[in-house]
Amino acid sequence: MGQQSISIDQPTTAPVPTYGLMNPSYKGVYVFSIGDVPGVVAAQNHLSLFNPSGNTKTFIFGGVFISSFSVAAITLTANSMRGFRITTASAGTLQTNSTAVTEFQSTMPTSSAEVRTGNPTVTLGPAVFSSPLQVGNGVSSAVHSILAPPGSGAFTFAPGEGLVLQTATGDVDSRWNISFVWAEV
């Protein structure tokens, strides 16, 4: 049997990654992420993103990415993480933007957002989405991606507006992983 040769001119079937260009009107694109956040029995505001009153920027919702798991059996039949528009945010733990918020490009300015964890106090507006908790005992490999529908236009937060991620009831054995992406224009 003779040797087979492989031509380097043969086309490959491997996918080539593509990346969209950033909208030039964006001043910055940011992500904040928390992991292994324990559930509590009562209602809990896990994370808020707020555009402070008096800010000169508008925030554009990029997406929320949520996964959950449990460290022991969870008996709740309903314990969704819900997103609500908010008109105020205070208390909780205000995150330091220069160290806790990541710029998509290191040359972007520090975010002007107020990001709070640890049960911030908020004034709720209407609900935007729900993401279910994985029930049972174990790890959920699914990440729920909440994005604005294609063609819907930008979902924005003017100064004095924001979003909170909240559970109305909970279980101490649940754990949440949450990432929030936004742009500032």
What's the layout of helices and strands?
Elements: E1 28-38, E2 44-51, E3 59-70, E4 81-90, E5 93-94, H1 97-100, E6 102-103, E7 114-117, E8 121-131, E9 138-139, E10 144-146, E11 156-157, E12 161-167, E13 174-184
Antiparallel strand pairs: 1-6, 1-13, 2-7, 2-12, 3-9, 3-10, 3-11, 3-13, 4-8, 4-12, 5-7
Overview features:
1 helix; seven-stranded antiparallel beta sheet; 2% helix; 185 residues; six-stranded antiparallel beta sheet; globular; mainly beta
What is the structure about, briefly put?
The protein has 185 residues and is mainly β.
How much is the radius of gyration in Å?
A: 20 Å
- What percentage of the residues does DSSP assign to strands (E)? over 45%
Number of DSSP strand runs: 13
Distance between the amino and carboxyl termini: 66 Å
Weakly predicted, low-confidence segments = none
Query: Kindly state the mean pLDDT as a whole number?
Result: 86
Specify the biggest β-sheet. Answer: 7 strands, antiparallel
* Helical residues, percent: under 10%
Order of helices and strands: EEEEEHEEEEEEEE
| Quaternary structure | single chain
How many domains make up the coordinates? 1
Please work out how many helical segments DSSP would assign.
1
Structural class: mainly beta
Task: Give the overall shape, derived from the CA principal axes.
Answer: globular
